[in-house]
C-alpha cells in the first residue's frame, strides 16, 4: 500500500494483530523522516535562506549607498548579478530544485533592475508600468522553471499590475468590476492548477499553492460581495453574485470529494461575512450589532461542528 499516513497506520493497528515492532517499522518507512530527508530539507532551507538574504542585501545596499554610486556602477552591479545567477542556473550539475530557487532569486533581481532604471532616469512612468515590465520579463523563466514559489510571485505581480492600472489609468472603472475581474482571474488560475494536478500534468504541486490561490479568490469574492451589498446600484454586482455562487458551489463539491476541510472552512466563513454585511445593510443600530454577533458565534460553531463530523466520517471510511 502506497502513501500511508499516520492515521492510516493507527487505524490498521487498532483493527489488526500488528505487533508493536511492525507498527514502529511502518511508521519509520512511511511517516518519519530519515537522515537523508533531513539533509535534503536542511540543504534546500539553507539555499533558500542564502539566496533570499543575498537578494535582500543587494536591495538594501542600493538603498543605503544610492547617492554615492555612479549610475553605471548601479546598472553594472545588478546586471552582473543577473547574468551570474542565470549562468549558474544553466550549469548541468545543479539539481532541478536548486536551479528553480536560484531562478526565483534572479526574478527578484529583475525587479530591482527596473526599479534602478526608473529611479535613475526618472521615466515618469506610473507604478503599474514597473510591475508590468517586471512581469513580462520573467514570463519565460516562470514557464520554464515550473516552480510553485516563482508562479506565486508571477500571479502576485499580475494582480498588483492590474490593481495599480485601475487606480492610475482606468480611474473610471467601477470598483465592483475591478474586483470581479480579479476574482475571475484568480479563480481561473486555481481551477487550472487543480485540473492539471488531477491529470498529473504538474509534478509535485504543493497544497499551499492552491490554498493561497483559493484564499485570494475568496478574499476578492468577499470584498466584492460586501461592496455590492452596500452599493446595490453597481451593474456588475449581479454578475459577481452569480459567478461567486457557481464558484462556491464547485468549491464545496471539490472539498467534499477530495475530503479537504480547507475549502469547507474558507467558503462558509466568506458566506458568513456576506450575510453579516447584509444584516448591517438592513440596520446599523445597537440591536443589529447584537444580532450579528450572535449570528457569527452560532454559525461559526455550526461550521466547526460539521467539519469535525466530516473529519471523523472520512477517517472511518479509510
TrEMBL record:
Domain of life the protein comes from: Bacteria
InterPro entries in the record: DUF2157
Keyword terms of this UniProt record: Membrane, Transmembrane, Transmembrane helix
UniProt entry tagged with the keyword DNA-binding: no
Transmembrane regions: 44-66, 72-91, 100-121, 127-144, 151-170, 176-196, 208-230, 236-255, 262-282, 288-308
A Pfam family assignment: DUF2157
This protein's record includes keyword Membrane: yes
Protein name, UniProt field: Membrane-like protein
Annotated DUF2157 domain residues: 41-151
